[in-house]
Amino acid sequence: MCGISGWVDYGRDLREERQTVQAMTDTMACRGPDAEGAWLAPHVAFGHRRLAVIDIEGGRQPMTAEADGGVLAALTYSGEVYNFQELRDELVRLGHAFRTRSDTEVVLRAYLEWGDDFVSRLNGMYAFAIWDTRREELLLVRDRMGIKPLYYYPTPDGVLFGSEPKAILANPLAERVVDADGLREILAFVKTPEIAVFRGMHEVRPGQVVKVRREGLSKSRYWQLEAREHTDDLPTTIRTIRELLDDIVTRQLISDVPLCTLLSGGLDSSVVTALAARALRGRGTVRSFSVDFSGYAENFQPDDMRDTPDTPYVRDVVRHVGSDHTDIVLDSADLMDPAVRAAVLRARDLPLGIGDMDISLYLLFKAIRERSTVALSGESADEVFGGYRWFHDPAAVGAHTFPWLAAAQTQTGLSTRGEFLNEELLHKLDVPAYRADSYQRALAEVPRVPGETGLQRRMREISYLHLTRFVQVLLDRKDRMSMAVGLEVRVPFCDHRLVDYVFNAPWAMKTFDGHEKSLLRAATADVLPQSVVERRKVPYPSTQDPAYEHALRAAVADLLSGEPAIGCLIDTAKVRSILAQPVGAVSLQGSRTALEGLLQVNAWLDAYGVRLAL
Questions:
Q1: Is 568 a catalytic residue?
Q2: Catalytic residue among 2, 30, 260, 494
Q3: Three-state DSSP class for 294?
Q4: How far apart are CA 308 and CA 323, in angstroms?
Q5: CB count, 10 Å around CB of 97?
Q6: What pTM was computed for the model?
Q7: Is the dihedral of CA 520, 521, 523, 529 positive or negative?
Q8: 6, β-bridge pairs
């Protein structure tokens, strides 16, 4: 995995802008610690930071394709194309000669052979830019599910782009301004496609191509979810899912560097670990890692989302598949480390985090990176197969809003991201109206099967909302926390073939045995311990240590004693009321949301020099 940056400007010679391009590229150093490169031509400049995973010596970037002494096209690329070997073989038969073993060169040659349509042939996670020197045209491309990020910022004479907002913000043409809609997006928890919070900045939508020419910018989709009749019976559906998963996991084990799995003891991560162990049989032992908190299992208290701690189930999977396992154990001091919290914000670029769950994930990935360069994750199985509890909650299913928001409203002790804001600002922002508008626009996109009604129609809507909105929140989080330490995380359940197939399976089939994720359980039960097959969905762990909440409160109190950057936005009396509430013997994630949000927004305003245009 890598970090990319670039600049197209039809009104100036960018060969004279090397220093600015270098500054943009330097912000991506965390994503690519192994090498860097730049390529500059009259109206285009590409930067690249490389995390070497495949063809360590040969895959240097930016990469160019040349003929008759001139450059035909240049590429700066982040990601992995898992079917690159098949594409390479086809391109060789068509007459292409390759200098490297990398998938990067396959992508570049595929463009030269098939033009813009080449993207439909790629299977993988990727974000890249191609400059066609013959047409003086830029293509920005993002993978179908949005696993890899890509942002752009149109300018009067071209565009800036980068893997993360920080790359664009390093260019003086980009303003660090956030308007009311940007702040609404931060608070709403809806993940509106293409919205990047900073005014003037956009995110390439999953499955989208953005084309930049002298005449202007255009956008098109090369993939999106489609609705169709599912004609396979239940046994065929289960068998097809298993065949897909075997193929997907096997493809994603290809690496020239050490590889591992993330293992929580839940169904999704256990499936990935077990299938990886089977695929590696005879070639080695799969390595697995999990995160835990000091005293968590011994003092665990069930809450609205978590019935059980992870540790016993992790142990069962390790024994069952024989993985080489490591627990990364954290305490509250680790979670409150100022340097770590600053690194997490820097990785995010935005105050969109979920408190200790971001921080612990960052620390987990940092520890893994000392032993492995690539990790396989169970992320997105809940969105694909219908695993979250609110999929099965009639009140959330029937609510006229995003189901995860409806479910959150019923949780006990839950505070909100914007609870600390002053009433005048809350009235002006009207976040509920922003959410309602976002919800209606999302529903209008949902593909339909003619005649589909009732529960099946509604569950298609809910699946679509998760696969196009909610999953983006989690993929963004996983990408930023992993790439902040130079770790590549692969997401097998995001393979578009699997997503498309399961999206069209009837809801009755997805719940045929009365459990969530029935199809996934049935397809993989033979490789899992029975305890995991029967385990109910439990989210990523969150510390329950009251010492962590006490530390958060102390940090907020200290903030109030000075002149915080967020001072003009908050209601001090509200904040003091939050601080006056007692801390229980167990601290739950929901009770800390407002505290976490206040601290992070303040740190963001201060560190990024954001100007609010409200």
A1: no
A2: 2
A3: coil
A4: 22
A5: 7
A6: 0.97
A7: positive
A8: 46, 161
